[in-house]
Amino acid sequence: MAENVTDNQGKSRYEAHDDGELAGFVQYERAGDTIILVHTETEPRFRGEGLAGRLVQACLDDVRKQGLNVVPLCPYVRDWMAAHPGYADLVPAEDRADFGL
Fold first, then answer.
1. Domain spans of the chain?
2. Which of 4, 56, 57, 72 could bridge across to 78 with cysteines, CB 3.0–4.6 Å?
């Protein structure tokens, strides 16, 4: 699967598409220089292929480029970040313990 991840600002979500079909998304809210990641979802037929992890990584890579702070309210994003400590710096230092980072 070679998905394409884009920021659909109109729907406030990062989307992964496979051959033009929506495969999954990370829903977010923006507040100034902070992005609040609230929900991750993959379509049933794309589950079990690592899509959610690649989607979250692409989202966080883009967020890093923009210089935004992250609030990982989504349990999947929070667990993914805990397993990939190189991304913990996106969460303000004073908030990391609150998210297990």
1. 4-99
2. 72
Q: What is d(CA 57, CA 16) in angstroms, rounded to the nearest whole number?
A: 11
In tens, the pLDDT along 21-58 reads 899 999 999 999 999 999 999 999 989 888 999 999 99
Is the whole-model pTM more than 0.85?
yes
Give the pair of three-digit tokens for residue 46.
Answer: 């794309």
**Bridge partners (DSSP) listed for residue 29:** 36
CATH fold for domain 4-99: Aminopeptidase (3.40.630)
> What does DSSP assign to residue 87?
G
Q: CA 78 to CA 95: how far, in whole Å?
A: 12
Structure tokens at 17: 């598409």
What is the rounded end-to-end Cα distance, in angstroms, of the chain? 30
Sorted by sequence, the CB contacts under 8 Å of residue 25 that are 6+ apart come out as: 8, 11, 13, 14, 15, 16, 40, 41, 55
Q: How many residues does the chain have?
A: 101
**Pair type for strands 69-72 and 34-42:** parallel
